[in-house]
Design goal:
By secondary structure, this protein is of the alpha/beta class. The chain is 28% helix and 27% strand. The strands form two sheets. The protein has a five-stranded mixed beta sheet with strand order 3-2-1-4-5, with helices on both faces. Strands 8-7-6-9-10 form a five-stranded mixed beta sheet. Helix 1 crosses helix 2. The chain starts with a strand and ends in a 23-residue tail after the last helix.
Length: 223
């Protein structure tokens, strides 16, 4: 039996899930982004206790590797790598935007394209576009939105925009082929991905795994 802990602290909502053979047996979330670091480890311990397991029961740790909040990415990746190192178990990672797309595809299969969007500052988002088979149509990138965004793709294809960044676009984009969903993601999206990668032994390199920031950290402090 594969017993896997999944961690996602890439956005305002941090979450963890534990699963046995791809079936969820515990879930917890935190809605205060500034406290992800102090919340995560106690939450893991409590969730394991509630589920009747201890930390040594874990066979692998899966983590959403980004993009997302700079601090949140570091918290999630550092915690996942620390647990893997201490327990001598494998690390599994997946791009957050792809996780978002795989999640909505479980519910919405009627569109040609799926655009995952994560809120960044001002009119900027982290985004990627996928087809129905989770193939990348537009690679993950940071994009500043305007009323002409995605016009080429929308010309002859229907596309649903979702995630925390999609409300920004909804305010300025009016197109017959553009649709919007309020669906947000969580560590639950990692469960089937982690199970599949565990069975395939598609593990990350523990020594060299780093968060996927998309772009350099933006520091507003005066130098």
């Amino acid at each position: 039996m594969a017993f896997i802990l999944s961690i996602d602290t890439t956005t305002e909502k941090g979450s963890i899930a534990i699963a046995a053979d791809g079936k969820e047996i515990g879930y917890s979330e935190n809605h205060h982004q500034q406290s992800h670091a102090s919340w995560l480890q106690p939450a893991i311990e409590e969730l394991l206790r509630q589920s009747g397991y201890d930390i040594t029961s874990i066979h692998a740790v899966a983590v959403a590797s980004g993009p997302g909040s700079y601090t949140g990415l570091r918290v999630g990746m550092a915690s996942a790598k620390g647990l893997c190192y201490a327990l001598n178990i494998p690390l599994i990672e997946e791009n957050t935007l792809k996780l978002m797309a795989s999640g909505i595809l479980q519910e919405e299969k009627n569109f040609d394209l799926y655009c995952a969007m994560m809120d960044a500052r001002r009119m900027e988002v982290f985004m990627a576009v996928f087809d129905k088979n989770l193939n990348e149509v537009v690679a993950p990138a940071a994009k500043i939105l305007d009323e002409n965004s995605f016009q080429d793709l929308l010309e002859d294809k229907s596309m649903v925009f979702f995630g925390s960044g999609s409300p920004k676009l909804k305010k300025i984009l009016d197109h017959k082929n553009a649709f919007f969903s309020e669906r947000l993601h969580s560590a639950r999206e990692l469960i089937p991905v982690a199970e599949k990668k565990f069975q395939e032994k598609a593990f990350a390199d523990l020594a060299y795994s780093v968060p996927f920031y998309v772009k350099e950290f933006f520091d507003t402090r005066k130098k």
